[in-house]
Amino acid sequence: MGLPAQRIHQAVSLAGAVSRLLDAAAVAGGLAVAVRLRNQPLEDYALPALAAILMYLLVAELGGMYRSWRGVSSSRQTLAALSTWCVAFMLLAAAGFATGRLAAFPRSLLGTWWLASGLMLVLTRGLVRGVQRWLWQHGINTKGCAIVGVTELGIQLARNIQAAPELGLRLAGYYDDRPPERVPPLPPELNRRIGNIDDLVADARAGFIDCIYITFPMRAEARIRGVLAKLADTTASVYLVPDFFVFQMLHSRWTDIGGLPAVSIFENPLYGVDGLVKRLFDLVVGSLLLMVAAVPMLIIAIAIKLTSRGPVFFRQRRYGLDGREIRVWKFRTMTVCEDGDEVRQATQGDARVTRLGAFLRRTSLDELPQLFNVLGGSMSLVGPRPHAAAHNEQYRKMIQGYMLRHKVKPGMTGLAQVRGWRGETDTLEKMQRRIECDHQYIRDWSLWLDIQILLQTLWIVLSGKNAY
Known about the structure:
Distance between the termini: 63 Å
Number of domains: 3
Largest sheet: 5 strands, parallel
């Protein structure tokens, strides 16, 4: 008969409605400041203000700006708000200039508007987080919570609650029917085992416990059902914390299909606002780098043509996002252009490498043409380095999770390269370490991480380590 037709709904919080109102006020308020500085009447700009508010709210909804930010740092929320405003402003400006609506707008007014609204978004979100933190620190609007199950997951959950005061939770302790010898030992700072499930029911009835988190493993269905049956006689909010951590999770997030929840195990982290931010970063920084590198690239191209026979550029088949084939540009550094079913990696003192090619490889200047791949969208400035298609087919059979590195675009540089796994992978262990770094990059991605990797890459290139 299948599962009963049920839906799981996401809560629509008052905080979300307040955030929308404050964001709209910040967008319109920035324009009001810009107009007042020019001593112009506000009523002449009512329509652009309304259009900007609608554009911002649309981009914010698509980017998930009004989801719950509990447990997320203030800086990340602020960066997301600023990124949303930048995207919305660019879309609004593009539409305005395309239709001629912004033709009479002074450029200085647009710049002041962009800056003023951005500052207001930062201030309003900081104010909201500050008020919430003050209330929780004074015991206002906090919730007493308990954990059912002395398990490894329960211990990790308790640590997460203690490390995130912005959650507004007061941890009472653990409740479990099992004797102490059947459960893992609790760390001293978390040694708060209060009692059994009957004690939990009594405490919840008395109003001491508002939220209950069940951390039994998913295989313990009968035990979970028994606990739920007892807790049904209380008014506490009950949550089931699934032990998904037993899987090697690449990047996880909740989604739903017709109201039924699903959690991703292997997923691309660059969706919504994050994806737009990374793409804009690639376009802006990639364009600047290409302008700086244009003359050196021309000189390198002439030198290659004069010092060895063959083409200036070498395009090799590699795997891109989601395993789709792309053609990666490089300056030719060898006397051969291998791109078949077997590709031999370059080794130290490789006879196939030309004299100029050795210098280009040592300084990584042979990678500069990949800026065209970045601007074209098939690569990113930072990401897992693309391997030759032949190497992909070889290692995907030898290393579990190898192909997960293709959940994001390949990069000109990556975390593995700055961690010392650059150059030849002449042993399986070296490739495994590189893949571990690629997986860590996907799990921990942030724009700041990309900037750090780019800066570290500059130092690695200057040192010439592991490049041949």
